[in-house]
Input
Amino acid sequence: AMADAASVGALTIDKGASVGGHTGVIGGVLNNKSADGSHVGISLGKSKESDDDADDHKVKEGGSAFSRTCVLFMFGSMLLALAPKRMETLKLETVQRPGRSFAFGILGILGFAIAIVALCVTLIGIPLAIVAALCGAVAGLAGMVAVLTVIGAAIARHKTENAYAHLAIGCGLFFVAGLLPFVGNWITVLVVFIG
Output
């Protein structure tokens, strides 16, 4: 009797043999020739692979969230450099009236979605809908950048007045909050609507 059995290719377990540990076969089949067909502790590696797949999925999900946050930071840095007055206006509106911004965000997103669908009804409206969707995405990201910069400023204004540092702190917190199982989705929705 063996503790574990592993094989690349086919693995045959003869009559009278049993495996006390786990059996793994990569790229082949498991031939069970024992009399009663039973083994102690047989595992074809499926559960281990599914656990590994789940872990890989979590790592990929975290990596893509980190990539999205980095892209958001780079986009926000460009906006802060190219349109500082407009970004300052967005940040000021976020600070002064966050509830109003949230309510207008909900209405704005719903109205924008209805307008895009209405434009797609006609053949002439489809190109306009594409352009409007791209402009809306840029405007939405600009609003999110303003919200994240305000959050970063609330935390680190006593240390630095650098808007890029505030944005980096806000993006870092947004990334960490997005990884939380249930709360992360609500925080993302809140930032999007206020933005």
